[in-house]
Amino acid sequence: MADDGMLLNFSIPDSGILNKPQFKGGNWKQRQTAKKAAAHWHTKATERLTGVRAPKAPLPLSVNATDVNRTELGPRPERPHRSPEYDNDRPAKRPRVSGDSHKKVDDDASAADFRPHTDANVVKNPAAKQDTSKGGKQIISSLFSFNPTSTTQTLSTKPAEDAPVEPSNAPLTSELDTFTSLGISPTLAAHLLKKMDLKAPTAIQKAAVTQLIKDDSDAFIQAETGSGKTLAYLLPIVQRLMELSANMKKRKVDDSVSRDSGLFAIILAPTRELSKQIAHVLDNLLRCAHWLVATTVIGGEKKKSEKARLRKGINILVATPGRLADHLEHTKALDVSNVRWLVLDEGDRLMELGFEDEIQKIVGNLNLRMRAQKDEASRIPGLPAKRTTVLCSATMKLDVERLGEISLKDAVHIRSDPADRTENEGADDEDQAFLAPAQLKQSYAVVAPKLRLVSLISFLKRAFARKGSVMKVIVFISCADSVDFHFDILTSNLEEEKVAAKDDAKEDTKKEDDEEANVKKSKKKSVVQSDPTKIAVTHAESPSLSPHTHKVTTYRLHGSLPQSLRTSTLAHFTKNNEPAVLLATDVASRGLDLPNVDLVVEFDPAFAREDHLHRIGRTARAGRDGRACIFLMPGCEEGYVDILKTDRKDGETGIHIGRQDAEEILKKGLVTSGVMKDKTEYMEKATDLQLAVERWALASPARLESARRAYQSHVRAYATHVAAERGYFDIKQLHLGHLAKAFALRERPSGMKVPGLRTGAGRESKKPAKIRGAATGANKSAVASKAALEDTKVDDTEEAAKMRKAVRAREKFMRHAGMADEFNLG
Ligand SMILES: Nc1ncnc2c1ncn2[C@@H]1O[C@H](COP(=O)(O)OP(=O)(O)OP(=O)(O)O)[C@@H](O)[C@H]1O
């Protein structure tokens, strides 16, 4: 019988066509797994039978009649098929067009990074994606996508000139310019030559020594960095005291000057480090006049032992203002009635750090004691009747004038003799003395925020690649937290992290959706290094910077470290004859004379142009060669190059400042073979490095906290550029999401919380009042400062007010960031 047209009409019972299996035995987990597997198999089998796709949850163990009948009505509209990876790969937001990304400054920035990847924007990291395996949302974005483009890229730069430049701060070369020709005694001159290896004076020494030996007028000394200002004021003081001693001997009034004869000279310096350095130069000088005794009183040292030294008798005192004012009030043994020389070194810095009150107190006290002594007529024979005050400062602006009013009377302005210097012809008169040394080779690197960290590592790797080419490097970073973070990164073994990252990448392609496995894997493979920010460690070998041939040591220095540690760190860095890099805040920018510094890197630009000149002045000292490179981000920061160019006039075009791009830095630093396998090799290496750094940070909560802290402090510091320069460093233009990547962070800026410290540094509405205020201020002043820069007629008082405002903002920032100690307030 033909069965054509015959209909089978049966329905499937509610209980399903397949029986629900019973699971017995094993533990709970095994039973659950078996149950799930059976359910899955059951569903698939039913689907095959009925042709209907079962809804995902809850999993039915049977298909009922209604579902079958539905097939007659037409299939239920199906959801589009989603691959298991779909959830991970799906962009969280509509992708923005490349180049837009830097415009939006909130924590959205991070989200903007995770967009569907294409070959064009992703090199290695398979898609910028959210990774939830480590708890909390993480954003793993590509390093090379959506970076802002340089605004000055197309402008051609003048090629570097090979013509040798005459050093501007070197000792004079004329045979007539000797120390004795300036009035220095043959004994002292011989000591300078034989014991200190100083053959001839520098231009500023010639001018200052001649003036200060011949008369007792007050003086204002202004000269460029590394030109020997310390000896310019120390030599005449020691010479005069040696003369005094010789005269006393001749007259047989007394044996000679000894430590009991009284305190004759005080030198005030803004920082403890600088005070110690001055004291060290002085001690070297006094080796030829052993009867003269010098000491230091500086903040951070034990007052009791300082008092004991003062009681024993002192002739020359080097001090920080706070500590000296304290001793004047509380140490009876400190008699200042014989003080005839007062030196205020780094005067602008003294004022910037708010030492005005202390200096006023000190000067008042000295005046009072001198007047009292006049009445007693007990003056040491030969001791000048008048006190000479010498003020050394980079600039003669603003607060320095005020300091001059407090301390100087009819001062002589001492600068390098123009006849000895052929440079600077076009420089304006006021700033003539404060310029970068002529022989210093300057450059700038345009690096997008995401690429900052890998670029820094590459830059340093390249610098130390060949043994002996670069011995010492100083990297300036805006705040202590950031110094700590970068120190931890550079002293960690990132290679091990890279291996772990590669293994993970392979595994990830196999089992991308297995979260549980990922968590276990990351726990197992994360190489747990020593915990960061162990305060006692201030130097360590840097595996990522050390080539096979030699080791590179990384140091850190900032004001939050205990004084003893700072002193020992500087001493270690100074004595180290092997390649070394010092990561430092501006605590190392002023006056410090660290030998053999070949290169200064301003990873974070200075808060003001003057600070920049002081920083780069740590190299190219006393006629030696030196290089300096400043990192700038694409966009408004690039305009800062114009400020750098006005530094020293060189014909009509200004100085030549070389330019480098991140791409070039990464290629040179990471592709060590020198020959790239393909065009993207450097990108792969940079991505590996970045992943290693991120993995390093994720390996311990302490590291993550240190990274967040560094990031937040960095953002805060960014808001404190001086008003006149805030147009170039506009916090509103700062891409916080991209910047977070340079701190190894995979979090949205708004989600960051650092225990006990700052809260949210991302979304504007969530910013702490401090940042909000600063950003708004920055915004307003950006307009004002741009106008100020354009308007050359801005008067001094207006500029002074702006500068004061900026200084106050910076002080506030320092206090807020727990950096009051940054400048060693004595
Ligand atoms: N006449 C000289 N001949 C050779 N070297 C000198 C001479 N005078 C000083 N120096 C060296 O020059 C270096 C810089 O000196 P110093 O620290 O006094 O400079 P400075 O002008 O105070 O710099 P800064 O403005 O950065 O504080 C020191 O290493 C010092 O030994």
Automatic annotation (TrEMBL):
Coiled-coil regions listed in the entry: none
Primary location group: nucleus
Function of the protein: RNA helicase.
UniProt-annotated location(s): Nucleus, Nucleolus
Biased composition (Basic residues): 32-43
Keyword annotations: ATP-binding, Helicase, Hydrolase, Nucleotide-binding, Nucleus, Ribosome biogenesis, RNA-binding, rRNA processing
Domain annotation Helicase C-terminal: ranges: 452-670
Organism listed in the record: Paraphaeosphaeria sporulosa
Biased composition, class Basic and acidic residues, residue ranges: 69-107, 498-512
Residue ranges occupied by any Helicase ATP-binding domain in the UniProt entry: 210-414
Compositional bias ranges of the Polar residues kind: 148-157
UniProt GO MF annotations: ATP binding; hydrolase activity; RNA binding; RNA helicase activity
Source domain of life: Eukaryota
Family to which the UniProt record says this protein belongs: Belongs to the DEAD box helicase family.
Region of interest: Disordered: 18-135, 148-171, 498-549
Cellular component, GO, one term: nucleolus
Name of the protein described by the UniProt record: ATP-dependent RNA helicase
Signal peptide: none
GO terms, biological process: endonucleolytic cleavage in ITS1 upstream of 5.8S rRNA from tricistronic rRNA transcript (SSU-rRNA, 5.8S rRNA, LSU-rRNA)
Enzyme Commission designation: 3.6.4.13
